[in-house]
Amino acid sequence: MHGFGPFETAAIVAMVVAYILFTTWLTVKLRSRTSGEFMYAARSLPAFVVGTLMMSEFIGAKSTIGAAQTAFESGLAASWAVLSAAIGFALFGILLSRKFYNSGEFTISGAIGKKYGRSTQLTVSLIMIYALLLVNVGYYVSGAAAVSVVLRVSLPVAAIITALVCTFYCAIGGLKSVAYVSLLHTFIKYAGVLVILVVALTMTHGVLPMVNQMPNFYFTWDGKIGATTLIAWIIANVGAVFSTQYIVQAISSVNNPDHVRRSTYIAALLCVPISIMIGLIGVAAKFLFPDIKSLYAIPVFLDQMNFALAGFVTISLAASVFVGVSSITLAISSLVMNDFYVPLFRPTPQMEFKMARLLSIPIGFLPLIFVFFVPHVLQLSFFTRALRLSIAIVAMMAFYLPFFQSGRGATLGLMGAAISTTVWYLLDNPFGIDNIYIALTTPPIIMVLEKLIGKIGTPDTGSV
C-alpha cells in the first residue's frame, strides 16, 4: 500500500469535513419543528424517499464492511447477507406493511401492544432497544475502520468522530431531515462502492483471473458459509425487516396509504446490485492482499487510489454510517419516548419534542463503550437480526393467528427468545445450530405451551 503524504491526507480530511459541513447545513435547513415531524415526519414523505431511507438504514456501513469481510474469508456467497434483505423487503410489503401503517402507531412495540397489551409492548420495546444498541456498535466498528485508514487516526478516535456527527444529525434533524439527507447519502454510497469495485477489478484484471487462481469455494453459491447459515441469514433478514423499529417508523411516514407497498419494493430493488458489488470487492481483496485483516477488505483499496478518489470513497463510507447511526438512534429515542417517558410524565408537545432531542445525545454515544469488544461485524449484525426475528414471529402471530391472543404467552415468548438467543450467541452457536434458529423457534414454542397449560388449568364448567 503506497499510503498518503501529509498534503494528500489533509486534502482528504478537507473533503470529508466539507461534506459533513454541507450535510449539517442541510440537516438544519430541513430540521423537524414538531414532535410529529421528529418521530414520523408527520406522514409527509413520498414512497421513493421512504424506500431509499429503508434501504440505506438496512444496508449501511455495518453490512457493507461486514459482507466484504465475510466475502474475503468465505467467498462471493457473502453477497447473500445483503441480497436476502431484498427478499425481506418484498415480503414485508406484501404481508405486513399495510397492517403496521393502518395501526396508526409509529413504533413496533405500540402496534404489537394493541394486540397483546401493555406488558408485551414494554417487552418488545426493551428487546428492540437492546438489539438496536448492538446494531449501532457494529456501525461504529465498521465506520471507524474505514475512517481510521485514510485519516490516519486510531480506531477509538474515528469511532468518537462518527458518534459526534451522527448524534448531531439525529438530535437536530429528526426523521423528516434524516429521510431527505439520506437521498444524498445513498447516492454517494452507491457511487463510492462502484468506484471501489472498478479499482478492485482493474487491479485483478477482471473476474476471470480470480476464478482461475482462487479456491473454488470463492465462487460457489454457498462458499465456505454453508447452506444452513445462508438459510439462517435469509430468515434473519426477513424477520429483521418485518420487525425493526426504524423500518416501521419509516413506513409510518409515507404520505399516501396506497404507496406503502411501493416504498418497500423500491427498497428491495436498491439492495440487489450493491450486494453483488460488495461480494466481488471482498473476494478481490483476498486475491490481492491475502495477509491483511479481513475487516479492512474494503478500506484497503483506499490506499490504492489517488487522493481525490480516496476522499470521495471515504465520504461514501462515512455516508453509510451517518444514515444508519442517525436512524437507529432516532428509533431508540422514539421507543423510549413513546413507551416510557410519555406514559409516565404526560408532557406537553413542546416538552416531548425537546426531550426527544436531548435523549438522542446519550443514546448516540452509549454504543462507544462496547465498540472494542466486537471482533466480527457480520456475526454481530446477524445476532441483532436474530433478536428482532423473535419480535417478527410474535407480530405475525398477532396479525395472522388470532387464537394466540394471550399477552402473557407473547411476553414470555419474547423474554425466553431474548435470553436463549443471547446465551446461544455467546456460546458460539453450539452443535452448529445458528442462534437465528433459536430466535425463530422459541416464541411459538413458549406461546403454544402457555396456551396448552392455560387450557389445562381452566376448570371445565360445561357440566354439573
Give structural notes.
- 76% of the residues lie in helices and 0% in strands.
- The protein is mainly α.
- It has one domain (6-376): Sodium/glucose cotransporter, CATH 1.20.1730.10.
- The protein has helices spanning 6-29, 35-40, 47-58, 61-74, 80-95, 97-102, 108-116, 118-151, 155-204, 208-213, 227-243, 245-251, 260-288, 307-345, 349-365, 377-400, 407-426, 435-457.
- The longest helix is centred in the middle third of the chain and has 50 residues, at 155-204.
- The radius of gyration is 22 Å and the shape is globular.
Structural class: mainly alpha
Total of domains: 1
CATH architecture: Up-down Bundle
Q: What is the helix fraction of residues, given as a range?
A: over 70%
Give the name of the CATH superfamily: Sodium/glucose cotransporter
Which series of helices and strands comes N to C?
A: HHHHHHHHHHHHHHHHHH
CATH level-1 class: Mainly Alpha
Shape: globular
Alpha-carbon distance between the termini?
87 Å
Strand content: under 5%
Could you tell me the CATH topology label. Answer: Sodium/glucose cotransporter
Number of strands: 0
Q: How many whole angstroms does the radius of gyration measure?
A: 22 Å
